[in-house]
Specification:
With 321 residues, the protein is an alpha+beta fold. It has helices spanning 7-20, 22-25, 49-59, 88-96, 115-119, 123-129, 150-160, 177-184, 187-197, 221-235, 247-256, 269-275, 311-318; strands at 28-31, 37-40, 65-73, 76-85, 100-104, 107-112, 138-142, 167-171, 205-213, 237-242, 292-297, 303-307. The protein is built from 13 helices and twelve strands. The radius of gyration is 19 Å and the shape is globular. It starts with 6 loop residues before the first helix and ends with a helix.
Length: 321
């Protein structure tokens, strides 16, 4: 079922690179009592662009590449993450998607990365793309400001069917630069998830690339989280090369795919979040999409585009003056 691609095997090699040179990457590496490896990329560690780059590639299960450069957004130059993959469904839905709700007592975090493919969380996504990883080591990325309790680490290892000493947990607070970088690096995944919700078969996507601005950091979690969302909703651009038979259907899907399809489009995400009483599940799901989506159909050579970068919303969210 895995087509020879093991996202955890690829990611573990990247993890060894990260842990092998913690000073360079600005991370702190520790062993938990249970034997799990804990990589702090921004709680009590400096983190940064380099850590964010490698963590984004780990999140994609080593099936995608990342380049950090810059782009012009109106009058502003902003650091920008470019992501590309030749294995879009596995790299994004099969690994990077933040789809694992992890809870233990008062502790809560959203898990992403290759460990999901071992634990099959959530199962319906893996059934849809027909993928299961088999490897004796697991890497999970948590967007959190706290180290998870030992009890939770043991449960994660059990869910992934690995020994605790073969589990690695990477911690990336949203308010850190590494955290902001890896969230902006979800640009391709956000688009594929939205297309899938609209009825598109993710396995029909052959290649993908995308870019999004890395937002200015903010010390407050809610503001930092809102900015990372706005980076994708108003500044994110994606392109997918697909093999699709029904081109009329494809044109309709592309039209509904960008964030502009949402009734909340144009408002800074912090306003949308507060209007929903800080409950993600009450937000119109149509907003969670790139600003601009382009699809090239390899079968006919035709290209369809919808959406555009919204400079005004970016300037407001990022407080650019």
């Amino acid at each position: 079922m895995n087509g020879g691609l093991s996202v955890n095997r690829f990611a573990w090699k990247l993890l060894e690179k990260l842990c092998g040179n913690p000073e360079y990457y600005g991370v702190k590496v520790e062993r938990a009592e249970c034997g799990a490896t804990i990589v702090d990329a921004g709680i009590n560690a400096k983190g940064g662009f380099q850590a964010g780059k490698v963590i984004t590639e780990i999140c994609m299960g080593g099936c995608g590449k990342v380049v950090i450069g810059f782009r012009q957004y109106g009058e502003h130059e902003l650091p920008t993450i470019f992501v590309y993959t030749d294995h879009p469904a596995i790299a994004t839905l099969g690994s990077q998607f933040a789809g694992w709700n992890i809870k233990e007592g008062e502790y809560f975090a959203i898990g992403s990365g290759p460990a999901r493919a071992l634990a099959q969380k959530p199962k319906e996504i893996y059934e849809k793309i027909g993928y299961r990883d088999e490897f004796n080591k697991a890497v999970v990325v948590l967007e959190t400001e706290k180290v998870p309790p030992e009890k939770l680490m043991k449960r994660l290892a059990e869910d992934c069917q690995v020994q605790c000493e073969n589990l690695a947990i990477i911690l990336t607070p949203t308010a850190s630069l590494a955290g902001a970088t890896q969230v902006a690096g979800r640009i391709v995944e956000t688009g594929i998830h939205k297309l899938t919700k609209l009825g598109f078969n993710p396995n029909a996507i052959l290649y993908a690339w995308g870019c999004a601005p890395i937002p200015p950091t903010h010390p407050k979690f809610v503001k930092a989280m809102a900015r990372t969302n706005d980076a994708i909703l108003y500044g994110g651009v994606t392109q997918y090369i697909v093999d699709y038979e029904n081109e009329d259907e494809l044109a309709k899907i592309v039209e509904k795919a960008p964030s502009k399809a949402s009734k909340d489009y144009g408002k800074p995400f912090i306003e949308i979040f507060k209007a929903a009483n800080c409950d993600f599940y009450k937000i119109d799901p149509n907003i969670f999409a790139p600003a601009k989506i382009t699809i090239n159909n390899i079968r006919t050579g035709k290209t369809f585009t919808a959406g555009k970068i919204n400079l005004e919303a970016l300037e407001k969210s990022f407080e650019l003056t």
